[in-house]
Give the backbone structure.
Amino acid sequence: MSNPIKKLLGQTAIYGLPSIVGRFLNFMLVPLYTQVFVRPAEYGVVSELYAWVAFLIVFLTFGMETTFFNFLQKEEDRDKVFKQAFLSVLCINGAFAAFLFIFHQSIAEAMLFGEHPEYITLLGIIVILDAMAAVPLARLRAEEKALKFAGIQMAGIGTNIILNLLFMLVLFDPARPEEGVIFILIANLCSSLLKPVLLYKTFLAIRLDFDWSVMKSMLIYSFPLMIAGMAGIVNETIDRILLKHLLFDGSPSSLIYANEQVGIYSACYKLAMLVTIFLQAYRYAAEPYFFSQAKNIDRDQQYRRIMNYFVALVSFVFLLVSVNLDFFKEFIRNESYHVGLSVVPILLLANVCFGIYLNQSIWYKLSGQTKFGAYIALGGGALTILVNVIFIPTYGYMASAWATLLVYAGQMIASYLLSRKYYPIHYNLRKFFLYVGLAIALYFVSTILNFENKTLYYISHNLLIVGFLYVVYEMEYKGFKKNPSKS
């Protein structure tokens, strides 16, 4: 019998490869953007626009990817499940497209982009294209057509990167920064358009054959997931939007300052995204895997071991980046952005908590108690907004960083406590505290080891990482051999 954890790792490698590559290459665009956008305010415009993209893609997909996987386990007619999931997304996106067409100028003015309504139009088309491709791509994952899935995703990523390099290095004039924004959006539009083009056979085969009973059940299941996703995006991206609008007092100079703060914060936030590069890849494989293991007798042990490895890995990434921040900051080529580097360790730790929460969240999806996911996310979203609104005017983006950590840690704890009551999974909390606590302690040790000699500096800092890995090896490999049932 094949090892299910090895299977999960294999699926993560295949299905997560496009996400890993895509996020990594987008991370590698940070040096390009921070170099060509001389002033952080210009990069701040791009960052805020993509904060809105995150909101819209969650709303327009409406939680249908997870819903699709769940209903495949319940319905015998898999084609019907796919069709109703797709048609649900089609209806939502059709309504959104009509709204955007009518009100795009008013939306642009409300977002303080009144002089550039084309930003809003391009953004809307991008998210509609991405949302329409989401369920067909989920079907490829469910059918284990890994190479086709990866090929389509990689084609889109490659198109986006190549066009970014062409537009920004060859055609872009730094004297007209608004053109740079348009170039980035056009590159993204071409990338998004490629997905439905490559999936054209799937789109052409779909008929408008509505099964209102199935669709209603799917929408009822997916609605709390959408709410949870929207609230989750509040935690992840609303800070950039609030930074701009709370620091803007109506004067042109304050708008420039506000965009600068968004640009600095966003560039430094990218360094913390190294944790989420892994998270995104992991989620592609983990969700269908967890559903497939739901009826297994030893599922509890499998979930526990996976969580052990997961916590160890995200703690390792936190330590790797935080103790080598002097190296990673070079990815931000313009030193005018470096003033915000103090937020990176805070955001890294926040993403560790977020990753643990995401891994835990399978309990309410497996049990059908998706309302709790919505409650947790809504509570976190409300707290995010409250902390940012109160403290941004005084502390700027530092308030946003601490709010992110506070909320993600709170969600992680709330999810665990609720799971103990409704769908117990007996995680090894001792290892949780050991790995995360050790990583934090070693980070603080690294702040003391400030050697002027750079070679000695990096050697001493990275020896701390070696020590962390040794502890994980002792706990996981040797510990499992001694007592597999308690690992």
About this structure: The longest helix spans residues 252-292.
